Amino acid sequence: TDAEVSTRKKTFAEVQTERLDQAERTVLIKCPSKFNEKKLLQYLSSHGNVKSHFFFENRGINALIEFSEKSSIASLQDAVGIPSASEHHVVPFKSRLFTFTLKNPASQRVEETPLHLSPQCHIPVKDLIDKLCLADSISSQMHILLNEYQLTEENIKLRFLACSLVRDFASAYFPDSTVKPFGSSVNTFGKLGSDVDMFLDFCDTGKHATKMKKGPFEMEYQMKRLPSERLATQRILSVIGDCLDNFGPGCVNVQKILNARCPLVKFSHQPTGFQCDLSVSNSIAIRSSELLYIYGCLDSRVRALVFTLRCWARVHGLTNSAPGTWITNFSLTMMVMFFLQRRSPPIIPTLDQLKELADEKDKHIIGGYDCSFVSDLRKIKPTKNTETLDVLLSEFFEYFGNFDFRKNSINLRKGKEVNKPESSPLYIWNPFEQDLNISKNVNQPQLEKFIAMARESAWILQKEDKAQQMINKEPWGLAALLIPFGKSNASKMKNRMKGIGSETIRSLLDSLKLNNANSQQKAMGK
Questions:
Q1: Is 361:352 a contact under the CB 8 Å cutoff?
Q2: Total of domains in the chain
Q3: 327 Cβ partners below 8 Å, 6+ apart?
Q4: Are 35 and 91 in the same domain?
Q5: pLDDT at 137
Q6: Which residue in 98, 202, 211, 357 has its CB near the most CB atoms, within 10 A?
Q7: Residues 143 and 157 in one domain
Q8: Helix or strand or coil: residue 293?
Q9: Can you give the pLDDT at residue 506?
Q10: pTM of the model as a whole
C-alpha cells in the first residue's frame, strides 16, 4: 500500500521522534467490564480531539487513547480523582494511567457491541503450524509466520507509551532527559511478547554548543563530579529504580542489576503488560538498532527470513531466552544478514558500502569506533536479486550446514568470510566495536547442534514431496521444520552427520532426545 511505502521510507530518527511525540499525547485507561465504546470516546472528546485509540486485554479491558494535543491530557487530569484510601494508603503520584468505572452501572443500558481487541501476543507454535499447512508455497508460509509474529502498530504504540511513562519519573530529576526504546522494539525485527529494552538519554548537548558561542563568557553548569561514567550510571539507575519501585503505578518486581557489564534496572510494567529493561544511553546499541532497521526496510525478504529462522531456532532449542552458551537472536540475525550479503547478486549491502554512502550528518564516532553509515534509505540502490524465499531458506541451511566455522569468521563490514582472529567456535565480528566477537558465549556443542539442525532442515526441504504430504495431511515445507526433530530421525541423522566429531554426535543425539521432550513442551507454551 502507499501508506506502507511512505512509512517505509522514513529515516530511523524520524520514526523515533514521531513515535515519542505520539506517546507524549497518550493515556492508558483501565475500562469497566461492560461499557459503551461510543460514550467513552464522547466523554474523552470533551477534553480534546481523540486522534486514535484501540482496546486490548490485560487483566481486564484497557484503552490506549492518543489525543491530538498534549494539553488535552492536562484537561483530563484535572477531572480525574484520587483513589479513596480506605484499606491502602496511596502514593499521590499523578500519572497518565487511569481507571474508569461506571457511576451507576444499573441505569446505564450497555448495548452489546463486541469490542475489537488488539492482540498483544502471538499464537502458539502448534496453531501456527496448522495455519502454515493451509498455505500454497513456502514463501507464503513465511509471510504468514511474519504476520503472526511481527509487532503490530498498536503494540509499538504501547511500547513507546511504556517508555514515555518511565520518562515522567526521570524528568523529575533530569527535565531534558528522554527514555527511548532500542533493540527489537524499534529495529523492525521485534516479536509480539518480547521485552522492551529502553534507555535513558541525556543527549541535548548539541543544541547548547551553538548558543554558548555568543557573549563574552564561557559558561557551564556546576555539576556533581564522579570518578567514572560507570559510577554516575549506577547512581542514576539506582535512584530511578527506587522511584519506580516506590512510586510507579503498576511497576512491580523491580530489580537493580548495577554490577553488570551494562548496568540496568529490570521491572514488570503491569499496565502495558511488558517486561522492561532500563539502562543509560548506549550509543552503540542505538547504532545497531538503526543498522538493522535499514536492512529490514530495504527488502521485504529480509524480515520474512529472519522471523522464520528465529522461530525455527527457538523450536529446536538453538536459542533460548535465558543467557547461556546458546546462539543469541542477535547473533542469528547477523548470520542471516551475512548470508544475504553473500548472495549473488547481494540482497543487502555491506556495512562498508553503507559507510561510503554516509554524508556529514551521518558521521558518528563513538568511543573511538567509526559507527558512520547512511541514514537516508533513498540513497541505497535496490538489489537486482530476484531469488524467492523458498530458495533463500533452503540455501541458508545449505550455506551454514557447510560453512567452515573452524577457519572462518563472519564479517558484516566487508561481507566476506575472514580468517578467525581467535579460536572461539563461532566468531561474528561486532559491526561497530571491531575487536569484539558478538557470539563469544557460544560453545562447540551448541555450534555443532546448529550445524546438524541446518543440515537436517536442508535435507527435509530437498527430499520432500509436497503434494503427497498435503494429501496425507502431513505438515510440509516450513511447517515440517517447526516440529522438533525427534527420536524417529535420530538414526537417519547419524548418516548425515559425517564430518562432525563422533563425541559431539553422541552428545548431540543425547541432547536431541532430551530436547525433544523439552522443546515439545516449550514450543506449545510459546
A1: no
A2: 3
A3: 313, 318, 319, 426, 439, 442, 446, 447, 450
A4: yes
A5: 94
A6: 98
A7: no
A8: helix
A9: 56
A10: 0.90
Q: Is the pLDDT of residue 251 over 90?
A: yes
Q: What is the pLDDT of residues 60-89, one digit of tens each?
A: 999 999 999 999 999 999 999 888 766 678
Pair (177, 271) in one structural domain: yes
Query: CA angle at residue 26 from 39 to 113, to 5 degrees?
Result: 30
On whether both 257 and 337 belong to a single domain, the answer is no
Residue 244: give its domain's CATH number: 3.30.460.10
Do 512 and 410 fall within a single domain? Answer: no
Domain match, 143 and 243 both: no
Residue at which a domain ends, from 257, 283, 309 = 283
Residue 481 in any domain: the answer is: no
514 in a structural domain: yes
Residues 341, 445 contacting (CB under 8 angstroms): no
Helical spans, DSSP H, in 107-152: 125-133, 138-149
DSSP state string for 190-249? -BTT--EEEEEE---HHHHHHHHTSSS----------S-HHHHHHHHHHHHHHHHHHH-T
Residues 6 or more apart in contact with residue 32 via CB below 8 angstroms: 100, 101, 102, 105
The conformation of residue 135, written as its DSSP 8-state character, comes to S
Q: Which of 64, 42, 40, 62 is nearest to 52 (CA)?
A: 64
477 pLDDT higher than 50? yes
Work out the percent of the chain whose per-residue pLDDT is above 70: 87
The last residue of one of the domains, among 462, 477, 502, is 462
Q: Where are the alpha helices (DSSP H) in 316-443?
A: 329-342, 351-356, 389-401
Radius of gyration of the chain (CA): 25
How high is the pLDDT of residue 241?
A: 97
Torsion sign over Cα 8, 122, 36, 73: negative
Give me the residue label for grid cell 559491526. Answer: 431
CATH of residue 429's domain is: 1.10.1410.10
Residue 487 is predicted with a pLDDT of: 44
What is the structure's pLDDT at 518? 47
Q: Within a domain: residue 142?
A: yes
- Please indicate, yes or no, whether residues 414 and 445 belong to a single structural domain of this protein: yes
- Chain position carrying cell 540482497: 347
Residue 525 lies in a domain: no
Q: 192 and 44 in one domain?
A: yes
Residue whose C-alpha cell is 557551564: 220
* Interval 363-400: pLDDT, tens: 999 989 999 999 999 999 999 999 999 999 999 999 99
Q: What is the mean pLDDT of the chain?
A: 89
Q: Look at residue 104 in the predicted model and tell me its pLDDT.
A: 78
Tens of pLDDT, residues 34-55: 889 999 999 999 999 999 999 9
Which grid cell is 452?
546438524
pLDDT at 505 over 70: no
Which domain does 506 fall in, by range? Answer: 490-518
Confidence label for 1 from pLDDT (cuts 50, 70 and 90): very low
Task: Find the mean pLDDT for residues 176-188.
Answer: 96
- Alpha carbon distance 408, 386 (integer Å): 28
* Residues recorded for the chain: 526
Q: How far is CA 28 from CA 31, 40, 64, 164, in A?
A: 9, 13, 5, 12
